[in-house]
Each structure stands twice: as C-alpha cells, then as structure tokens.
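Progress report, Aim 2. The chain analyzed during this reporting quarter is listed below.
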Amino acid sequence: MTERAMTAPSGSDSRVQPLDPAPAARVSAAEAEAAMDTFPKLLLHHARVRPTRPAIREKDFGIWQSWSWDEAAGEIRKLACGLAALGMGRGDRIAIIGDNRPRLYWTMTAAQAIGAVPVPVYQDAVADEMAFVLDHAEVRFALAEDQEQVDKLLEILERCPKLEIMIFDDSRGLRHYQQDWLHDFEAVQEKGRAFDAANPGFYEGEIARATGSDTGIMLYTSGTTGKPKGVVLSFDNILKSAKAGIEFEGLREDEEVLAYLPMAWVGDHIFSFGQSYVAGFCVSCPESGETVLQDLRELGPTYFFAPPRIYENILTTVTIRMEDASRIKRKMFKYFMEVAKRAGSRILDGKAVSVTDRLLYGIGRVLVYAPLKNTLGFSRIRVAYTAGEAIGPDIFEFYRSLGVNLKQLYGSTEASVFITIQPNGEIFADSVGKPAPGVEIRIDEATGEVLFRSPGVFIEYYKNPEDTRETKTEGGWVHTGDAGVMTEDGHLKIIDRAKDVGRLEDGSLFAPKFLENKLKFFPKIKEAVAFGHERPFVTAFVNIDMEAVGAWAERNGIPYASYRELAALPEVYAQVKENVEQVNRDLAADPKLAGAQIRRFLVLHKELDADDGELTRTRKVRRNVVVERYAELVDALYSDAKTAHAETEVTYEDGSKGVMQADLRIEDAQSFEGASQPALKKAG
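Predicted structure tokens for the chain:
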C-alpha cells in the first residue's frame, strides 16, 4: 500500500481542524462540531481558521485563478445578501445550471446561508428535461452559467410558472437581453453590498438560524426507469457522510481535487463540495469539458473520482498511443506491464513479492509507470474512486498495477453516496467493499435485494410520498433495487439491478448488466444492451467506441466517413465478434451464468444518446426506452433474419429532429460448453 502520511509544513498542522484555537479551551469538541452543522457555518469557520489557504480555483483563458477561504467567504456573503435583496427567502429554491464554476458552487452556499435550497440541474439537459425539474421543484430563482443556459430557461419559462428571477454568470452574448427579471451575477453582488450595509447582522443571523436537520439540497435522480425524483437531503445527511469518508481515508486540508463531473450528481456534491467544506481542502474547476484531461495533468490531484467510463477512455487513449509507438517502445511497454500485472497490485497492498519482481517493478517504475502516470496526471493521487457502474477487472487492475490506489465504492443519491468502500489492503475487482462507517447492510432473503441504513439516508422524495414509502421503510432501511450477495469476509458483490435479473426459457440465470459490463470491458465496445428474459437465448446490441475503432481503421487503411459507415464494416463486425465470443468463453466457466452466453448480436447504426432519451444524463441505459424504440431490431435478433432495417428519430445538437436509416447486419456468435449445460452451436 502506498504511504499516505505526509510531513506537514513546519509550524502547521494539515489535519482537519475541528474548532477554532481560542474557543477550543472553552467549548467541548462535541459542542463545537454541533455548532458547525451547515455549510455556511463551516465557511465562516474556515475563513477564521485557514483564511489564506486556497478554497477553490478555476482555469480561465489558460491561467489558474485561486480564491482563499477568506476571499470565497466574502464573495458568498455579497451574493447571499444580493439574493435576499432580490426577494429570496427561507424555503425558496434556486436552480443552478452550468459547468463546474466557482460562482456556481458559491451560489449553493449563498442560498443555504439565507435558508433557501439549491437544486443543481444537469447542464446538458434538453429544455424538456429542465422544465420538468424546475416545475416539479417549484423553483423561483435560477442561476445560469451562460447564454446557452439562459436561452433554455427562456424557452421553458411558460412551463415553469414559479420561476421569477434569472441570474447569469457569463455575460457574453447577453448584452441585448433586457428583461427586468434577468440579472448579472456581479450586479447581484453589488446589490448585496448595499443590502449588507443597510442590514448589519442579517447575514450572520440567517446562518445561525439553520440547523443540521434542515434541508441542505435537492438532487434529482437520473430517471433510469421513469421521471426523475427529487431527493431531499439534509445538511446532516451530507455532512455526516462526507466526514465519515474523510476519516476513513484520512483526507486532509492539503488535498487537491478536480471538479469536472456534473454538479447535479450526488458524487460531485460530496467530493467537490461536501468534503471540501468539512476538510477544508481546495477544489479546482477545469477550463471546459474539452480540456479536462489537460487540466488534470496540470493539477495533479491527490484525491480523484471518476466513473468507469472515464478510466476506460483514458486506457483506450493509452492503448491507441502505444499502437502508434515504435516497435521497441511497444515491446518495452508490454514487457513491463506484464511485470506490473504480476507484482504491482501486491506491492501497492504491501504484500509479499519476489526480489526479482520487486527489482523489475522498480525498473519499470522509472521507464514506464512513472512517466505514464505523469502523462495522465495521476502521479500524486493518494486515493482514487470509481463507482456508478461495474468496472472491468482488467481495467481496474491496470491502474492499481501502476501504483494508483484505485478503489471501488457503492453508493446512491438516497445514501448521500456512501454505502460501501473498499478498505486498504482488501481491494478486490469483483466486490465493492465493506459497509462504509456508520452504514448497515442486509440482503433480502426472498429477493436478494440489497438494503441499507445510515446517517446519510435521504429525508424524502419531494412531493412523492408513495415512492418514499416504497423505498424507505419505517425502520430506516432503504431499498437499493440492486441484487447482491455478502461474502464470508464481509464484502458486498453487486450482481445486477434486482428487477432486471431474469431467466431464459430453460431457467438459466440472465443478468443483463453483468453481461453488458463484460462487453464494455473491451476498448472497442462503448455501450451494450443485452436481451434474454423469457427468451430462448441471449442477444445484444453493441455500440462501438468511435475513437478506438476509428484509430484502428485508420492504422489498417480502412476508409470510412461516419459512425454509421464504420459500425457497418465487416472488419468491425469481426472485431466485435471476437469480443463477444471471449465473453462467452468467460461465461462458460461460471456454472450460474454458463447458459446466458450471447448467441446473436448487431452493431447499432448510431450511438445511444441522452438527447434521444436512450441514456440518462449520467450515461446509464434507459432499458425500457431502448426496448420500445428498437423493438423491431430485438424481434429480428430472435428470428432467422440476417439483416434488419432500422429507422430512428435522432436529435441534433441544435435541438432539431431528423431520421436515420440503415440496414443492419445480424451476426451469430459461437457459444461454448459450460459447467452446467451441453455445448451450444451458433444460433439458427
């Protein structure tokens, strides 16, 4: 295991300071902690205890600009008073829409300071999705990052009768927008200056009125199976979960974090907001979504979170670059990665390794691992997490073999993220760890569903008492909807969504998400959707990875002009078929899943897209939508047809609609004799 202890600068203590030095002698630690039970109270605390330490930074026009805790507190105070001057009061809700920006994070704290509730919205949400959230949450105020977001708000204004005031951060393109209810961020802060001067004591008084049991934020679920639900979380929910994670990993005020995931997602709210306020560390916002990897390299975070897709994309980029490298470099990379595969994870976990492998790993660290980590921006990472979907075991082991302390965790919005975490020294690719501090887990004996209870359990689904009762029992246990098992050593393994686990006609177990994740392990496969419940065999849709397959096609001199053309190439089908049949070989070795091998598949002519309603904004497949939209293709997979015609409505970047047509090839895949069934042949 990598060494986590660091020497603090002379005369300083980089650990989280629980209370101010002066009151410490007069107030117990418990009383001091209770007095800091909201984010605005923590903000005032950090402005006193660590006023000059960086709180947040942003890259703009290629330059990193930082704000200390004292400076951030001043900006937030002006904004909070400005919001009050505009009429915001306790219980009001403000939508926050845009990329990760200091001003957007400040707006959350400013609203909380005067008793309002922030409602972050996915910045790439189309107008209809945004309208549902704003109307359902009864939003009165909205902060939009730029003209694009303001235009979406204007488009849905008539459908959101409660919406009264809009504020914008970036004024470019908005010079001629003259509506009296549209305000510039800086103008609101100027109003706040005057309001603060005229109402001394107002700001501190409003902060003091709040308690930990008050609503801190409302986060909307991604809506995998239907309309998103508004998850109401208290300050206590977020703060206690954030603190438990900090203590579990030993996080300190000198951590560096890159905030690049959607602010509307609970993971970003915990890692980029909640834990920053509890521990006092700095959060950095990238210049744009396109520069995240470059900004990651420049920043060199010490604490990092990414969903599996990000790690997969990074590995795909590495693979493509190595295939383009010289023959000597490719051979050296392959050799030392084999050494890392044998020894890297064991060295990271502090386990025994032969002298030879330890020596070779040291050489590999100089020649391959350290330069690669530096290129990726991973050199300083002390803790990295992945969650949201299962990560491919080989991808997981790749990063750990390089010396990156990557862990899996399992969580949900309703849990304020943390349900399980992998402890140091107990990192397994096929589990999501043990219950996080303060969390209890049990498995329903009848259904196999995972239930939990913890301090992070949400208050309710907003305006949805029926779903609240179905999800949260009177005893505080929460239904996750996931099927799982607990191992003898106390680790949780997630099998699939409980409602998605089914059976083939012959009774064989069918776990679609498990199969899809195995397919997505391969660099050339970006997305997959498996079918099979109450069917004679398993079939699948596949989306290729445009970057990986495109680079492969170019290296092999194979021309193509679009995703549709690339996806239809016989050579691409052959590559996908190899991947599908490798999954079948793996399944054949599993007695429980040997009967669920994939017999037929097709490569879709378009990528599944959130704008088309096929994915959620967190990139999860909306299975019901896909089944309904592509019903004819599903039926074709279970017929004798060798091709199928697809005619699909698509949404373009400007919001306009069009129709995409294609004749898709249906391919048979080889099945293999498994542990529990006779040898299978190709379908048909």
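The chain has three domains: 34-290, 304-497, 502-668. The first helix runs from residue 21 to 24. These observations will guide the mutagenesis work planned for the next reporting period.
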